[in-house]
Write a structure and sequence with these properties.
This protein is α/β, with parallel strands linked by helices and 346 residues long. Helix content is 42%, strand content 14%. The longest helix is centred in the middle third of the chain and has 25 residues.
């Protein structure tokens, strides 16, 4: 029997009967719903049942153009949607339509069911090892992004993903940004692999640990530059700074909550006059720098969470448990208590 959460008529944002594309809540809710559509597409395939997925995109006048299928387990991990609004929408709300996407490429996260869990978990491990870029699933998704941008331009394409899918969006978005293509991106509960400093209740202890971490990281970064002269002129954030993806995190979700401290700490370091240290530290990870210093830097890829700019939305509404805090459904609720900040790398 289908989960209630997979049925749009029971769990979807039915209150959004008229989409205003200038409204950030509407854009976030639609993007999250399209990602949920990918989850339900794969569950439809696994259960060999009557399709429950179409209402997740039909309700917002999107058309499913293509399913993205993993070549290892043949699971559906992504989808390409095309926005096909009725002609009356253009007549009634031209301004609102201007901010609408033409295409959305969406990626789901891990499904804890036997038909897909083994492969999904393997990819989760690749994220931990900074090796997602080496997987065939990512290459399939990345090629879809490249082809779509080449066909319709970066201004007409949105990316959206949840959890593992958010990591796919992060890597694809970074790759495109380095080529000068800045795609609008929605990352729901994106993984940030780090010590759980954000869980510490004492603000002074938490801030002290972050300052110590920044000083050590900046010091190792300078040592690495001294050892590798070619890196002295390189600025890994320069090409990415103009890309401002939208990140949606819940502080009760340990998988993504460190993004809160990552960006807030940068602001605090500026306020105490240590901005130069933090600007250097925020571009590096301790693990990668250690490998560089000991001579194994070529083996270490850039961690996904290193990000110069972001539109960060934090859900401050209480969560009953981790499952709810990490869940996708929270992001289209109309009664959320949200804190939003835009962080620009300077």
């Amino acid at each position: 029997m289908a989960w209630e959460r997979e049925v749009f008529g029971l769990s979807g944002p039915l209150h959004l009967t008229n989409i205003d594309w200038n409204n950030s809540h509407h854009r976030r809710s639609v993007a999250a719903s399209l990602v949920e559509g990918v989850y339900v597409l794969e569950r439809d395939r696994q259960e060999k049942r009557q399709a429950l997925a179409p209402p997740w995109w039909d309700f917002f006048h999107f058309k499913l153009v293509r399913k993205l299928v993993d070549d290892a387990d043949f699971a559906i991990f992504g989808a390409i949607y095309e926005y096909k609004p009725p002609s009356s929408h253009f007549n009634d709300s031209i301004v609102s339509i201007d901010r609408s996407p033409r295409y959305v490429i969406a990626f789901r996260g891990t499904i804890t069911k036997p038909d897909s869990f083994t492969r999904d978990f393997e990819l989760d491990v690749h994220i931990i090892r900074n090796g997602l870029h080496q997987t065939s699933r990512f290459e399939i998704g990345m090629q879809a992004v490249r082809n779509m941008v080449a066909s319709v331009g970066d201004k007409n394409v949105w990316l959206a993903g949840h959890s593992l899918g958010a990591a796919m969006v992060m890597l694809a978005g970074k790759t495109m940004a380095k080529m000068g293509n800045f795609l609008e991106a929605f990352l729901f509960n994106p993984p940030f692999l780090s010590a759980p400093i954000e869980k510490i209740k004492d603000k002074k202890v938490k801030h002290g640990l972050r300052i110590a971490g920044s000083v050590i990281t900046a010091g190792l970064a300078l040592a690495a530059k001294g050892k590798n002269p070619r890196s002295r002129s390189e600025d890994p954030f320069a090409a990415l700074s103009a890309w401002t993806p939208s990140l949606f995190v819940n502080p009760a979700d340990h998988i993504c909550s460190e993004y809160v401290g990552y960006f807030e700490h940068r602001k605090k370091m500026e306020e105490i006059g240590a901005g130069a240290i933090e600007r250097l530290a925020t571009q590096h990870s301790l693990g990668g720098l250690f490998m560089s210093v000991v001579g194994r830097g070529a083996e270490v890829a850039e961690p996904l969470h290193l990000l110069p700019s972001a539109n960060l939305t934090v859900n401050l509404s209480p969560s009953n448990d981790f499952k709810q805090a990490h869940g996708l459904h929270q992001w289209w609720r109309p009664d959320l208590n949200l804190k939003c900040n835009i962080y620009k790398f300077k």
